[in-house]
Design goal:
CATH topology of the largest domain: Serine Threonine Protein Phosphatase 5, Tetratricopeptide repeat
Shape: elongated
CATH superfamily of the largest domain: Tetratricopeptide repeat domain
Strand order of the largest sheet: 5-4-7-8
Number of strands: 14
Number of helices: 7
Distance between the termini: 52 Å
CATH architecture of the largest domain: Alpha Horseshoe
Radius of gyration: 38 Å
Mean pLDDT: 79
CATH class of the largest domain: Mainly Alpha
Amino acid sequence: MRGLVIAIMVAGVAVAVAEPVDTTEAGRIFQEARELAKLGQVDEACELFAKSYGLEPALGTAVNLADCLERQGHLLRAWALFDVVARHSQNVQNRAKLAQQRAEALLARLSTVIVKLHDPGIGGLEVRIGGREVALAYEIHDLIEPGDVELVATAPGRPAFRTTLHATAGATVVADVPEFAALPEESVETITRRRRSRVYLAGGLGAAGAIGLGVSLGLAISAKRTYDGAFDRDCAHMPAGIVCTDHGTATIGRAGTRADLATGFAIGGVLLAGASAAVFFTAPSEAIQLAPVATGHELGLAIAGRF
């Protein structure tokens, strides 16, 4: 176990207690972090102390990491580490004493929150304070950093409770979570809709079909105009049939080609439109649940489903 090494800035001078060289990877990173701490590079040192502590949760590293976290303003995490060190350093009295003093000093800068639950035994009940899930009890005691912290209590099939705790240093905040009432069955409305991916596919096929029919109409009009134009001077209706010059014959041929293309596009458009309808009406339905949500300060509507 490492000896106590903590970088403390006093009057702009870095002071540290020396410790034996540790040749492990965690020790190497720790030594690098200590050098950065001596140079006042707190953020960089904190990152390396955390990495070293993750590799080897040594109490000496924990003290240095806690010191860094306090400098960064993470008071709650710093207090937790100092408290751990103080409770587990009975064999290193100077470290235990220092960690205890630092923990007590931080405790005065934190706020205590007491959450009162009417029925902590509700199935699936979950209470989060500032995003952290806490253990359930009739009275939950927890520490939080000063400022606005959100308290959320949720249970399946029941309206969620939300409120904001306004905490100040050294003060105690009490929050009373009202008794959870089960939502009546009629308050949860379930609606269905087609699966979105299939709806998008159906829309794409329908759009392609519409374009095909539009192109078909344009080609059909062009073919009719080309055919009629051939009779202006190159073709004529005779008792024996239609008589055309070579140019007129070529013009009627072009009209026929366009008419064939118009027919092809029309058939394709109809097939795509049919496929679009088939994809849409055979798409699986998805259930969406709508339920009211009541909080300490607001009312809302919860929507559950795939989006």
